[in-house]
Amino acid sequence: MAEAIYGLCMFTSLACAWLLLASYARTGHRLLFWSGLCFSGMTLNNLILILDKLIFPHVDLLTLRLVAALISVSLLLYGLIYEKE
Fold this sequence. Notes:
Layout: H1 2-27, H2 30-55, H3 62-82
Helix pairs in contact: 1-2, 2-3
């Protein structure tokens, strides 16, 4: 069951990133761009989670997952603070 949940979380993040970046391409609103980058990073985070828990269970990838999540949230925070519209 964990495999299905991890996979669904990754594909949901990927769908959100795709929709946000496609909307940015149509409208040009910069906040959509930063949100799309954030969800792209969250997709990477979920992929690393799958690798950590399912593919390589004896290798600890927690630090890499946390770095990916930190960068993703930092991108969104930057977009929220510095993009003015």
